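Lab meeting prep.
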Amino acid sequence: MKKIALTAVAVLGLGLAACQDNASDNATSTENTIETEAATDTNSALNATDNLGASADNALDAAGNAVSNAGNSIENASEDVANGQDNVAGQ
């Protein structure tokens, strides 16, 4: 019975020795995770801002192209009128 009791005490002692307090490691890991997530959120926000700027530039380019196209259409229409008048005068 003594051998069983000594064995049980030895096993329990080893079990307790294996349990270490790693709260500081866990806190450091949590802090690193929070910092990484914050950096990721910041980068995502900056990328979204950059994309908004590019989208605004594209929209302005499209508007400029539309105005230019309208001007070209008016120019073509006036040339068509002039050509029509020349054709009538030539008959």
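Slide two material, second protein:
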Amino acid sequence: MQRFIIKPSIDMYGGIKVDKNTKLEYENDNVEQKVENLVFKSITKVIGEGYKSEYHTTIDLKEGDILIFEEEGRGYIKPVEEFMTINDAIKELENIKDLDKEA
């Protein structure tokens, strides 16, 4: 019997991997963001027809967390999905490539 995996995504995203020394500030019309001492603070402004909202978010990060930059004006986000570098993904696939031969 052959073994199969879900086709890996080759979509690439810009971002950063944080460590204890990471300092970041980003601002546009919709968002103000800051990372310092492994704390990510974001103020997001939403303006619509007849309303205004402002969301304050604080996320405690750990070393190695990845923040992805969204081009659509949201700035940096901490994704729910697990992201890794291209080289880390290649290593993971290299570790299982011989499993297909064992089946």
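Talking points for slide two:
DSSP finds two helices and seven strands in the chain.
Residues 15-102 form one domain.
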